[in-house]
Known about the structure:
By secondary structure, the protein is an alpha+beta fold. It has helices at about 10-55, 70-75, 125-135, 190-205; strands at about 60-65, 75-85, 90, 90-95, 95-105, 115-125, 140-145, 150-155, 160-170, 170-180, 185, 210-215, 220-225, 230. Helix 1 (about 10-55) packs across helix 2. Residues about 25-35 and about 240-245 have low confidence and may be disordered.
Amino acid sequence: MTTPQNSPRSRIGRRPLVIALAVVAILLVAAIGGTEAYARHKISQCISGAFEQQMGSSIDVGFGLRPVLLSYVDGKVGSLTVDSEDNKFGPAVGMVVHAKFNDIELVDRGRGGGTIDSSTADVTWNNDGIRETLGTVVSGVRSSASTGVLTLDVLGGLAQLEVQPLIRDGNITVDTKSAQLLGIGLPTDLVQGIVETFTQSLQSYPLGLRAQELKVTDDGVTVHLSGGKTTLDAARDPSRQQAEFTC
């Protein structure tokens, strides 16, 4: 006599198969998850090294929605975000950078660098960071959103230097508005040194990023940048003097 398909004995017979399939599915998901985590770690390591080398700052890398495992196979990263991780960006103390890089193609899974199709970045630099960057000769920094001018207290506050950062042809320049010490002009060398440090700090943007918009706020300076197609160089391992990290 045959056993009906819906009989208790039939259901008991199918149970081991269901359990086996469930175990296989769990193991498969775990394997894919583990492989994805490994790929994410390895590519993140290579990309972080390359970006940190060119950006001059410790960074935190975040990937888009595309599984990094696919990037590990075909070398293509849809997008990634880069955030400055410490309190310094290049020569600028207190500068915070949030950048997004699009359509990245990696060479040898990132070991050989790659290419970036486009990018954008937002920069915030507060008055305390500006003061610290400009050195001990500057004891205070005040900024005005209404005038677009920053006032620097120089020589212990005995003198004031007023400067205005502007964008010209995608580059940031810093104009001197006034420099007075008790009604007398400040020494040219002193003014020039401060302005050059300020300008260099606002021009230290890598990977083809160029300034598109700059605002002086009551708290400091903000800058919006964008960039086109550019090259991401391979990171170097300083301990081995090689052209790449072991990724």
